[in-house]
Amino acid sequence: MRAIQVKEYVKGPQDLTVTTLPDPIPSPTEYLIAVHATATNFFDLLQIRGKYQHQPPLPWIAGSEFAGVILSTPSSSSSAATPSLPSSPKYKVGDKVFGATQGGYATRVCAREEALHPMPRGWSFADAAGLMVTAPTSYAALVTRAGVKRGDWVLVHAAAGGVGLAAVQIAKAFGATVIATAGSARKLQVAKDYGADFALDYNQLGWEDRVKKLTPHGTGVDIVYDPVGMVNASLKCTARNGRILVIGFAAGSIEKVAMNRVLLKSVSLVGLQWGVYAREEPETAKEVWEGLFRLMSEGRFRGTVFGDRLWEGGLEDVGKALGMLERRETWGKVVVELEGGRESKL
User: Fold this and answer.
1) For residues 63 and 338, is the Cβ–Cβ distance under 8 A?
2) What are the tens digits of pLDDT across the range 305-342?
3) CA 132 → CA 237, 267, 277, distances in Å?
4) Among residues 38, 41, 53, 45, which one has the least CA distance to residue 9?
5) What does pTM read for this prediction?
6) Is the bond preceding 59 in cis, omega lying within 30 degrees of 0?
7) CA distance 229 to 245
8) Which residues contact 193 (CB under 8 A, 6 or more apart)?
């Protein structure tokens, strides 16, 4: 197979190289998958530099999210670690799946059944490759943790990012009015293209006041979706009894929040780390994915692949795609196609 193997930590994505390696040998509980598209993530940029909280022992294959075709199935789907798995594999050879596991930047990858999902009907490999992280994060935050409902006003920061566009679509599907923020005219337009009712540039002074003025009686939004680290500023435009969802810190620093303002407005700060949910609360994770697949089948949730530039050159394009991601020159999910990435299931 061909893969991006990290033998030593690199200074940046421009230093990544593609190499030829033996095909991986799946364990008795793993599937072997031919990768047709792989998605990039900010944590990949940290991991290749040795700065991520989860660092495999060198050498290792970079990447995580992918979509592809099952080449072989587990010889044993049950194990002591996963006694709840069925005795026969869920997927068969030839099935199209998406998922995430270490080693997504390769033409072949091994993955356990719990790391895979069936490719949605009518979706391309490219669209499905970017689903595994962003979609459940936004659904679990808005639906499971914040209880979004019809009539709510939802403020989505960095709305043109991967989790942001997922959040916009999910909030709209549940009947909310969405105010999107982003840092450029192009990204604001993308957020509106995906359903945002209003779009504001958070680089402009006074955006908080403009958010309040948009809401009924100027009381502020009911829910804030924040993957950036904008809690303090968002408190200025959050309604009493509102919920602020803390999703991440893309701005680069962890905020120190003025807790007196949280108290005075009776605001709830609600954290969400999807990886922990998926691992520690499998029943909740199952409900999240069922909800997402329902929205997809109803046509109320679509892929968020960055379309201003297509990456169809295979693994050699991964470094360039990660570079654009790091420079924040993209929107949605940046996906690299390996083989037949635009092919759809139906």
Assistant:
1) no
2) 999 988 988 999 999 999 999 999 999 999 999 975 55
3) 31, 30, 13
4) 45
5) 0.91
6) yes
7) 10
8) none
| Token digits of residue 168 | 């916009």
- What's the distance, Cα to Cα, between the start and end of the chain in Å? 27
Q: Which residue has the tokens 């991601």?
A: 325
Q: Which helix (H) or strand (E) holds 171?
A: helix 162-173
How does pLDDT run across 131-173, given as a tens digit for each residue? 999 999 999 999 999 999 999 999 999 999 999 999 999 999 9
DSSP state of 145: I
CB 164 within 8 A of CB 156: yes
- The values of phi and psi at residue 243, to 5°, are -125, 130
AA letter at 345: K
Amino acid sitting at position 258: A
CB 96 within 8 A of CB 125: yes
Helix or strand run (H / E) with residue 286: helix 282-297
- Tell me the C-alpha distance between 271 and 140, whole Å: 11
Strands 238-246 and 268-271: parallel
